Structures are given as structure tokens and as C-alpha cells.
From TrEMBL:
It comes from Verrucosispora sioxanthis. Gene3D superfamilies: Winged helix-like DNA-binding domain superfamily/Winged helix DNA-binding domain. This is MarR family transcriptional regulator.
Length: 145
């Protein structure tokens, strides 16, 4: 029996893998959105304007700007992120936030290695190509709406 690639298969795969990650995030006291925002701040490797940090979460998770700013406020309240003392419109990870993000990255890498362990490089490359095309098309559809 063959399976047809469709939105249901993609969604079920995403939610199953995300549930595995969220179990680890829960142990760290984080939500999925908070982890994504910490990752965005780590990738920037420099303080970001609050609006830019929120925009990166909006782009990654497709949430509202208000939700993204609320997530940023949660990270600030948890002292994982802080406004710059000289410019409160910009934020950066605190040392605790950086350490927490490193734990998230390690957990994510371990989960990925376990889930993709026996898949060939060719299969993984093909999956990336297909998923990137689908993602770009979906984002174009959202942008056109």
C-alpha cells in the first residue's frame, strides 16, 4: 500500500516530532514559541530591536504580532532575555537565557539524530527539497492574502 504525500501526512509528522521536542522543552520550563524566540535571538548573535525579535517569531511560527510580543514579555519576565540597559527598545539573551538556549539546541539535535538515524543522505536531501518548495508556496499564499 502506498501513501500519498499530503497536508495530513505533513501535519501528523510535524506534530509528532514537535510533541517529542515539547516534552523536553517542558522540562526546561519553556513553550515551543519561547524556544523558537530564544533560537532567533541566538542566531542573531547580537541584540535585536524588540520589533525585529517579534517579527522573527511571527515569520517562523505564523502567530500574530501581539502573540509574539507576549512571548517576548514572558522571556523577559523569566530573565532569559533582557532589554539593553542603554536602549530598552533592544533585547538580548541573558547568560541564563543563552545557557537555556544551548540546552534547547542540544535536545533538538539529539531528537533529530534519533528520528532521522537510519534515513539515507539522498532521502533527507529529497525531503528537504520537497518541503522547502511546499513551505515557499504556502508562504506565498499567505503573503498574497
Amino acid at each position: 500500500m502506498s501513501t500519498t504525500l499530503n497536508g495530513q501526512i505533513l501535519g501528523r509528522t510535524h506534530y509528532a516530532a514537535r510533541a517529542v521536542l515539547e516534552r523536553e522543552l517542558g522540562r526546561l520550563g519553556l513553550t515551543f514559541a519561547q524556544a523558537l524566540l530564544l533560537n532567533a535571538l541566538a542566531a542573531a548573535d547580537a541584540p535585536l530591536p524588540r520589533v525585529e525579535a517579534a517579527r522573527r517569531l511571527v515569520d517562523a511560527l505564523k502567530v500574530s504580532t501581539a502573540t509574539a510580543h507576549a512571548t517576548l514579555a514572558e522571556l523577559i519576565a523569566a530573565t532569559l532575555v533582557a532589554p539593553l540597559p542603554t536602549d530598552a527598545s533592544r533585547v538580548a539573551m541573558t547568560p541564563t537565557g543563552r545557557h537555556t538556549q544551548q540546552l534547547v539546541a542540544a535536545a533538538s539535535a539529539e531528537i533529530g539524530a534519533r528520528l532521522w538515524a537510519d534515513l539515507s543522505a539522498d532521502d533527507l536531501a529529497a525531503a528537504v527539497r520537497v518541503l522547502e518548495v511546499v513551505r515557499r508556496r504556502a508562504e506565498q499564499t499567505l503573503a498574497a492574502a
